[in-house]
């Protein structure tokens, strides 16, 4: 089985069978990662550059670890400290790196569409989107899906609510695409100022402005970070007010009379969108999401490396 695409630019471009293939391959790599020797030689002849124009902890470390577990050669590039500060363009930077015989590019960028731009100009190099602006974060959605399936066995028919800053969240958009393609029911919950207008019709999702009702409805709650760095206007009165109305709290969860799975892509604003005791309780799979990120990214790299050599 092969992916239908040479790049991973977004979940939007993947078919349900692409998604299933990535998730089943990730399952095999998760088993490899439980062994005493966690390394396989699959990408021994492949060189990968991790090009991070925007800050990251989880995604950057997880891609690098995935590459090392697959025996690839890796180069890490951070825009700060590079010739980007001297005015070098994205395309010039990447062309210079590729001239050193690099096979794959993993890129995070604050501009939506930056990886699509690269893929257009460099069709023979596999480009993997590690988060572009407010557009997509496909490997996050894949690891979220993998983590839900690990708990529930399937995505089909599962009720998943994405809570909070939908407007500025690339994690939300990738999750919406993926969950809808795989047969889950999706609800978006949060203040009206953080949920784009008409999203209900555009994506066939539910919208709920009352957190308690949203939690009552769902099997899984994926709580999103308030992205203050991407907000250029005041969209709610204060972080304290936000926490009072939309922060996920133990008391409310206890009153539901059922256990729901709590997720968060990180980094967490503790005491804003989620209280610490919820983030750290037994319903939370936040650290399992991070763990699964390595296996999922191994799967993506492995499958795209195979596609490249067609
Ligand atoms: N979830 C996520 O993308 O985290 P980082 O920004 O730390 O990579």
Q: What are the key terms here?
A:
alpha/beta; Rossmann fold; 310 residues; 5-stranded parallel sheet; 12 helices; 2 domains; globular; 4-stranded parallel sheet
Textual characterization of the structure:
The structure is a single chain. The chain is α/β, with parallel strands linked by helices. It has 2 domains: 146 residues, Aspartate/ornithine carbamoyltransferase (Rossmann fold), CATH 3.40.50.1370; 147 residues, 3-Layer(aba) Sandwich (Rossmann fold), CATH 3.40.50.1370. Helix content is 41%, strand content 15%. A 5-stranded parallel β-sheet has the order 7-6-5-8-9. The protein is globular and about 55 Å long. The two termini are 13 Å apart. The model has no long low-confidence stretch (mean pLDDT 95). The site of phosphoric acid mono(formamide)ester has 10 residues, from α2.
């Amino acid at each position: 089985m092969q992916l239908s695409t040479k790049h991973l630019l977004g979940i939007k471009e993947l078919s349900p069978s692409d998604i299933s293939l990535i998730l089943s391959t990730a399952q095999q790599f998760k088993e490899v990662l439980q062994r005493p020797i966690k390394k396989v030689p699959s990408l021994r002849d492949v060189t990968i550059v991790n090009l991070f124009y925007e800050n990251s902890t989880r995604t950057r470390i997880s891609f690098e670890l995935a590459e090392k577990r697959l025996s690839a050669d890796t180069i890490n590039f951070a825009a700060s400290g590079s010739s980007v500060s001297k005015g070098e363009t994205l395309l010039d930077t990447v062309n210079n790196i590729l001239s050193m015989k690099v096979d794959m590019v993993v890129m995070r960028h604050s501009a939506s569409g930056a990886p699509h731009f690269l893929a257009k100009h460099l069709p023979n190099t596999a480009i993997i989107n590690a988060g572009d602006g407010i557009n997509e974060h496909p490997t996050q959605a894949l690891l979220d899906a993998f983590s839900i399936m690990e708990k529930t066995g399937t995505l089909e028919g599962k009720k998943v609510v994405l809570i909070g800053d939908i407007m500025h969240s690339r994690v939300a958009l990738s999750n919406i695409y993926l969950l809808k393609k795989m047969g889950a029911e999706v609800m978006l919950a949060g203040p009206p100022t953080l949920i784009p207008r008409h999203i209900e019709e555009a994506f066939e999702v539910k919208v709920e402005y009352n957190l308690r009702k949203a939690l009552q409805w769902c099997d899984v709650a994926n709580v999103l970070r308030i992205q203050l760095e991407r907000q250029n206007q005041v969209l709610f009165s204060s972080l304290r007010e936000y926490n009072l109305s939309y922060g996920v709290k133990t008391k409310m969860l206890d009153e539901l009379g059922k256990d729901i799975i709590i997720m968060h892509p990180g980094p967490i604003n503790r005491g804003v969108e989620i209280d610490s005791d919820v983030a750290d309780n037994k319903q939370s799979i936040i650290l399992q999401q991070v763990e699964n990120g390595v296996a999922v990214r191994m799967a993506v790299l492995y499958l795209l490396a195979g596609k490249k050599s067609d």
